[in-house]
Specification:
CATH superfamily: YVTN repeat-like/Quinoprotein amine dehydrogenase
Number of strands: 23
Strand order of the largest sheet: 1-20-19-18-17
CATH class: Mainly Beta
Distance between the termini: 72 Å
Low-confidence stretches: 1-35, 37-45
CATH architecture: 7 Propeller
Strand content: over 45%
Largest sheet: 5 strands, mixed
Length: 276
């Protein structure tokens, strides 16, 4: 039987739409695919300069760790890993990547960023509006709540600074979790979305940009991007690139003025120094 050309065109469009819808449902239902929906940054009017860095060391890293947060304290790395049913908080030996201590979160939580304030580790969760507080022995000593999603967290020594995937950073008073200040992050006049893992270093907030192998340095007074680190070359140096996802994880060692950088399911941790 012969059908008009427009019939086949209609049928093709119908099948395409159906397949695309099913694909999106699959992405949303598969928690190993991604923890967040990406929001494309506007690339016009980008003004910040790119800065270079040198690689000091490359260390082994647990490639099964879906890294969400990273902090350095007393020669130990503390790492938060995500995914439902796989989320954890752990202490890690840098030189060989050995996990020294680990606690698993309930399967209902998708762990996110961590920071250290007053010898307490604060850990976010993605969609539960709840965070956990631990001592340095990874014993849970408290909980806290916040609105919206939890992505990255850092501290200026006084406030908890939290990202939620937008272009905003919220400054919270830790004891009450009242918002003290909200900062819009922009490069020139262009808002930068998908602010993820955070680290406060020498008066700047450093942030991984989700879905990009970039780290931005942010002025906490006005939210302007000061400079950008393109760390895409680190991906090329991974011992095992097979399952490596986006870069995520920034920790700073004040003794050596070096950063420790890694990513979700990265087989290595890199120690780097920024060339100012």
């Amino acid at each position: 039987m012969n059908f008009p050309t427009h019939f086949f065109l209609f049928l093709s469009i119908l099948l395409f739409c159906s397949c695309n819808t099913n694909s999106k449902k699959f992405e949303q239902s598969n928690n190993n695919h991604s923890d967040k929906s990406s929001q494309t940054n506007i690339s016009n009017n980008i003004t910040s300069k790119m800065v270079e860095f040198e690689i000091i060391n490359k260390y082994p890293h647990d490639k099964d760790a879906y890294t969400q947060g990273l902090i350095f304290s007393g020669d130990i790395l503390y790492e938060s890993t995500g995914l439902y049913g796989q989320s954890s908080l752990r202490s890690v030996q840098i030189k060989d990547g050995k996990v020294l201590q680990k606690i698993n979160l309930s399967p209902i939580y998708f762990a996110e960023g961590i920071t250290l304030l007053s010898q307490r580790i604060y850990q976010l969760t993605w969609e539960n509006h709840k965070g956990f507080i631990y001592n340095l022995n990874l014993e849970k000593i408290g909980e806290f709540s916040y609105p919206g999603e939890g992505w990255g967290i850092t501290t200026d020594g006084k406030h908890l600074i939290i990202s939620d995937g937008s272009n905003y950073l919220n400054f919270y008073e830790p004891s009450t979790m009242n918002v003290i200040k909200t900062l819009s992050v922009e490069d020139g006049n262009t808002p930068i979305f998908n602010l993820n893992e955070l680290e406060w270093v020498d008066g700047h907030i450093y942030a991984n940009v989700y879905m990009k192998d970039e780290i931005i340095a942010i002025n906490p007074e006005n939210g302007k991007v000061v400079y950008i680190l393109d760390i895409s070359n680190l991906r090329d140096l991974l011992d095992d690139k097979k399952d490596a996802e986006v870069s995520n994880g920034i920790a700073f060692n004040p003794k050596t003025s070096t950063f420790y950088l890694t990513g979700k399911n990265w087989s290595n941790l890199f120690e780097v120094r920024i060339k100012k």
